[in-house]
Fold this sequence. Notes:
This protein is 34% helix and 30% strand. The chain is an alpha/beta fold. The radius of gyration is 25 Å and the shape is elongated. Mean pLDDT is 89; it is low at 297-302. Residues 11, 13, 20, 38, 40-46 line the site of adenosine-5'-triphosphate.
Amino acid sequence: MIKVENLTKEFKTNGHSFKAIDDVSFQVDKGQVFGIIGLSGAGKSTLVRCLNRLEEPTSGKIEIDGLRIDSLNEKELLEARKDIGMIFQSFNLFNQRTVFENIAFPLKLAGETKEDIEKKVSELLDFVDLREKRNSYPSQLSGGQKQRVAIARALATKPKVLLSDESTSALDPQNTDQVLKLLKDAVDKYQMTIIIITHQMEVAKDICDQIAVMENGKIIERGSVEEIFSNPKTARTKSFIKNLPDQAEEIVLDKNEFKGDLYRLNFGKQTVKQPIINQLLKNSKCTINILSGNISTIGRDSTSGYLTVEIQGEKNDIRAALDFLEESKVNVEVI
Ligand SMILES: Nc1ncnc2c1ncn2[C@@H]1O[C@H](COP(=O)(O)OP(=O)(O)OP(=O)(O)O)[C@@H](O)[C@H]1O
Ligand SMILES: [Mg+2]
């Protein structure tokens, strides 16, 4: 649906040329939410702005729904942009226009009739839950409400793609959740494809299907949200994930997805630093599959942790493994 090949963007400043985007290729399927994370200056905004040619790419191919965006002339580009909505951290609303007029703006540009505009804007106001703010001005709205107006405006022309550049960064957690829910609803309702830049890992975790990590104009790591969070490969990705406040929370596993029984092994202060699992794996006849785990610091100097494991094998062997764990003072819970 979105296909980017060998995209490069060079900026020339004071005689120096600098690649803000350096030979980037990726694809996003229809209906997917594709997240881009990376440090400030990594090239995220530039990359996304190249997709609708707010920034002119230096070289490379950009294809959206079969249309080669990079080779469109100005008139064709204006037409194509109706299919590519964009929302920003700073909302970019027209302050002199009401909520209704802001949302109606792209429809007016597209030459729609008054009746159609009325109908579509009302529908969008319902969708973003702002009916009663129809005649308010942006200055009379909260940050979350402003962003919902911006989303309604971006959705007005029923774009195939929505580009979101840090659209939740200025919002408190509650408004962030509301905006993310709207974006998820938009994917379901309009079969949209979303590219979302965020520095909030909890946002990426909540909404993305795929994640790309950018550094120095390149994509250095890419994968499904599960892959990126459970098995980050680069130091950069690891550093992002480490800062996630709820990473210490346990992953919920569906035991019906596993053949063997699931156990949670709790390690306390005495057991957390001992090679108990090593001994278990060496001596047991069972197949032991580690599914999730965590060690966290509690207070100033104590650590505790857990491992969730799947154990498969003969009944007696499983019993022996569990006995060994009990003897080693590991607390075992059946899941
Ligand atoms: N118009 C421009 N002229 C020259 N250099 C630019 C221009 N726009 C961006 N850059 C440079 O390109 C690099 C990438 O910038 P970009 O805004 O894409 O980063 P970003 O990943 O979005 O960062 P942030 O997280 O801070 O928004 C930066 O080094 C920036 O200084
Ligand atoms: Mg940016």
